[in-house]
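In this section we turn from sequence analysis to structure. A common task in structural bioinformatics is to predict how a protein folds when a small molecule is present, because the ligand can shape the pocket around it. The inputs are simple: the amino acid sequence and a SMILES string for the ligand, here adenosine-5'-diphosphate. Study the lines below before reading on.
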Amino acid sequence: MSDIRLEGVTKRYGTFAAADSVDLSVTQGEFVTILGPSGSGKTTLLSLISGLNRPTAGRIFIGGRDVTNATAQERNIGLVFQSYALFPHMTVLENVLFPLGVRKIGGAEANRLARDALKLVRLDGLEERRPSQLSGGQQQRVALARAIVFKPDILLLDEPLGALDRKLREELQVELKQLQRTLGVTTLLVTHDQEEALSLSDRIMVLDKGRTQQVAAPTEAYLRPANRFVAEFLGIANFVGLPDGGQGLVRPERVRLSANGAANGSGKPAKVVEAIYLGQMVRYHLALEGAQSIVAAVPFLGTAHAPGEQVMVSWDSADIWPVT
Ligand SMILES: Nc1ncnc2c1ncn2[C@@H]1O[C@H](COP(=O)(O)OP(=O)(O)O)[C@@H](O)[C@H]1O
Ligand SMILES: [Mg+2]
């Protein structure tokens, strides 16, 4: 059974549709990410699901129940936003106790639940601190503890790691994924970061201008995008001509490079324009004959081709995905 279901969900502001006939089914325990550029309607969708906002048209079901007109309180949803939105005058423990108080859970039971939640996000020992005495990553962990402490049916996360620097963001991504798996809670994450979406989710929903572009597993959307927008939004996209006059997508990891004149060298001659060392990989920007540019991502094995060098590039026809 699906845990969250959207049917033709539309939100208009005047004539402008921030969400336009969106359909989505999320199953129990699934981790789905809504991915799209700024202004594509991601926050609008979450606000409709959480009950902070009402759709202009369409229906929303949670656990099979039609909640289209239910209040936020009636939906039992845990919410985390980019801005931590912690209560500054309360301690960490008081912040996490807050949603329990709202639900009339108090005393020893509330204390136990709050301490368990803080332990899950690895903040035990910091119960008496105030938000201002915590780092950004710790504050976001408090927000997460506060969102899960009352055992919500659904967790909605709106760019929860957006304010953190890259390294911390990557650490928290791993923790978030582990936490979600431990709790088994149905989760919808919003992000504009394609790597985050690809690495965390069971499925991603790509949104543009309020409209669904594709709903698919990360590898499926990355290698077999539904259209050009998805192809370009999910990563570097090489487009190559097809015999029928159409265009095909080849991802940089599928492009092979060999030294010019090597015995096994085959493919098209190209000139290295730029070689960008990325640690495990080297990203080459290459110019083919006729000035077509191609990007290749190749594992770094100790040596790299230098700018100006002539090489051969090739790819398997099986690695070309036709795109409209
Ligand atoms: N209350 C509102 N009134 C008018 N337009 C709005 C309102 N809220 C959002 N929008 C517009 O809807 C579009 C989608 O916004 P939003 O859902 O916040 O996008 P995202 O979260 O993907 O960045 C934007 O163009 C935004 O300006
Ligand atoms: Mg937003």
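The mean pLDDT is 93. As an exercise, try to locate the residues that line the adenosine-5'-diphosphate site and compare them with your own expectations.
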